[in-house]
Amino acid sequence: MHTRLSGPLLALTLLTLAGPARASATPDILAAAGLGDELGGEPVALDLAADGTTLLLARDAQGRGAVLRLDPLGAPSGAVRPLSGRAEDLAVDRRTGNLAVVGDAELALFDPGLAPLWQRPLPPRRADEPARRVAVGELGRVAALAANELHSFSPAGHALGRVALVDQARDLAVVDAVGVVVVTGSLRRSACERPLDVATLAAFAFDGAPRWRALEDVDLDVRCEREDLAGARGVAVARGEDGNIYLLAEVDGAANQFRGPPGQPATNVAFDTYTAPEPGQAALYAYYARYTADGEHLLGQYFALPDAGSVVRPRAIAADLHGNVHLTGVASHSLGAADEQLRSERLAAPAGFYQVVEPDLEARRVWHQLEADDAPTELSALAIADDRAVALLHVAAAPGRPHAGPLPTGPSLLLWSGQHGPVDVEKRPDPETQGTFGYESGVSGSDPSCHCDAHAPPSSARLTLGMFALAGLSRPRRRA
User: Is the per-residue pLDDT at 462 higher than 80?
Assistant: First the structure.
């Protein structure tokens, strides 16, 4: 017997690009504490295994960690695995199904049945240390950030190297194919007669030897003479399924290091108001970019809302086999239009968003913003595998109200399914030859202008923008 449970109604904004590949119009609720599902506590991290199951790391009220496996339909698969101490991050080896977990005291590897394989001690936590992070390479090597040090291990748990980092490290990715661990974060420097946060992106060999550093701008003082530089901080980095490196950063203003040095501007693509933030007055926005595993910057893009004081706070990034870029975060305003009309509005409370951008960064394929009346929502952790994307949603109850409007209060896992395949530009409909409902999604289209930085290809993207005031979130069919 099968049952289908109706999820709560969700106020969301949906943006998709018509094309040969289709993705789900709305996400499914894979599991939610507010609907009575077992999540092992408060979820803090997740990853997807090759068999489609979701590995979830949670903490109880005392901070102790636990690992839970959910089947592709969101039902628990096996018992919850309690951990001995506080855990902060996990990563799955998709070749073997082994699971790496990093915590306050150790790095541990478990087999697919969550039986321990090995544990290695880590240095004590520093007072100013951000959350610890772990990553697994495509061939099984494991690396972790702890006490602002990078620790690398073989699949069997043999220590390969350890190096102290000069910057404030936030995230890492392992690329076994070229033998490096890539780390992002920020470094506080003195520039423009004040302290300035500078985003960092660096690669190290497994023995700790430095390989390359991107984002190094030795002419900060020269640039300060021309403009008042804004700070930037690396938030997340990921090895895409296409083999490239993807950086996600938060930026304090339009004049920033990601524009590149004078005379050598970076290849940044813009196709609408939200990806060309220079004229706007945003307080905080996102920047994401594709690099080769050797540290070469290929393409980058800003994402900002043009309203004065608006905030886009990026959280996580991933990329699929075709190079579609997936990212999550929180925004203070809505995404209102794809053309040059500034129609976005301030939300009653910050709302989480999920976005998929085409491989050439010329158009959005998916845009979801999750609003729950006046209750804040956040989309944080993100994992993709094949045609599945899973993100961690948290909905906070509004002050003085026990429930967050139509959404289940507390943590939920959202699932997007559907192929984001390669895009054939010639198959995109031309808005000038289409009627009002000429696009595949059945809503009117617009023709955004391109505002591309130097070396960026001209935009030919055609977007379809739709507003769905109430869209039902369902849950996958589960076997009773």
Answer: no
Task: Inform me whether the pLDDT recorded for 145 exceeds 50.
Answer: yes
22 CB-near residues (< 8 Å, 6+ apart): 418, 419
Phi/psi at 447 (5° precision): -120, 85
pLDDT of residue 430: 38
Beta bridge partners of 268: 300
**pLDDT above 50 for 431:** no
**3-class SS of residue 55:** strand
DSSP string spanning 84-132? SS-EEEEEE-TTT--EEEEESSEEEEE-TT--EEEEEE-PPPPTT----
Angle at 155 between CA 45 and CA 80, to 5 degrees: 40
Among 270, 242, 238, smallest CA distance to 254 is for 270
Which residues lie below 8 Å from residue 241, measured CB to CB, with a gap of 6+? 319, 320, 321, 384
The whole-angstrom separation of Cα 253 and Cα 287 is 11
Contact at 8 Å (CB) between 231 and 418? no
**308, 300 in Cβ contact below 8 A?**
no
Give whole-number Cα distances, 470 to 11, 265, 345, in Å: 5, 43, 18
Q: Alpha-carbon distance 385 to 278, whole Å?
A: 35
Q: Kindly report, residue by residue over 59-100, the tens digit of the pLDDT.
A: 998 889 999 999 999 999 988 999 988 899 999 999 999 999
Query: What is the token pair recorded at 76?
Result: 């628990």
> Which residues make Cβ contacts (< 8 Å) with residue 158, sequence separation at least 6?
none
Does the pLDDT at position 424 exceed 90? no
Structure tokens at 436: 């009002």
**Which pTM value belongs to this model?**
0.85
Show the beta-strand stretches assigned E in 242-358: 245-251, 285-291, 297-303, 312-319, 325-333, 346-357
| CA distance linking residue 47 with residue 36, whole number of Å | 22
Cα 28 to Cα 165: distance, rounded to the nearest angstrom:
40
Taking a C-beta distance cutoff of 8 angstroms, is the pair 12, 472 a contact?
no
Q: What contacts 24+ positions apart, CB below 8 Å, involve 127-131?
A: 128/168, 130/168, 130/169, 130/170, 131/44, 131/88, 131/89
Question: Are the C-beta atoms of 178 and 294 separated by less than 8 Å?
Answer: yes
Sheet with 142-146, side-by-side order of all strands: 133-136, 142-146, 149-153, 159-164
The confidence score (pLDDT) of residue 26 equals 79
Q: What is the DSSP letter of 284?
A: B
* Nearest to 69, CA basis, from 60, 58, 59: 58
Name the phi and psi angles at 257, rounded to 5: -65, -20
